[in-house]
Amino acid sequence: MGLRFSGPPEGVFIANSRLFIISGPSGAGKGTIVQRLLEERPNTKLSVSCTTRPARPMEKEGVHYFFISEREFAERRDRGEFLEWAEVHGSMYGTPRKVVDGLLAEGYDVILEIDVQGAAEVKSVMPEARLIFIEAPSMQILEQRLRRRSTEMEDAQVRRLSDAYDELRKKESFDGVVVNVEVEQAVKEVLALMDSR
Ligand code: 5GP
User: Which of 23, 132, 159, 171 falls 20 to 30 Å from 122 in CA-CA distance?
Assistant: First the structure.
């Protein structure tokens, strides 16, 4: 664990912008679903987080994450630059407040793809935020997807899998849960949750 919330961003709900949070275990397919949501909704932007974990081979700086050192992360956290931050699977992750603030102020809807700790923190101070949980059809399928993705070493995969049990326990507090059996169907269900009042 290890999460602090450093206060709501200013001006969040000016314009009719909405904030969506997508969470769920590693391997549930959040990334693929979010990419499809962004294609479907040009007025929706993904907030790019900062992390201290190393970049995977295909990941690009500023596109997938801002990859920063632990020292820089701590400095930025202490300056209150993160809307929320958390330790997840042994690395630090944080949502840059300025980016989210700016996008909302420009009138975009914003998606945060963050873990369940961050989701709960944002919701506690911004109850208007819509929380959507994505899960795999079963733990067995989740494990298969994680192994097939093979972006992590064996011990990191095991950790992500065991963390999944903790994450699944939090899903009841979400506004909606989507089981990702098939991507296009899951995207439709997430869009319906985003549009529901
Ligand atoms: P990954 O290392 O697979 O990209 O992400 C690991 C976990 O960290 C995922 O559950 C992802 O949603 C979460 N995560 C990514 N960025 C943030 C962030 O800024 N804040 C929090 N709390 N979690 C994040």
Answer: 159
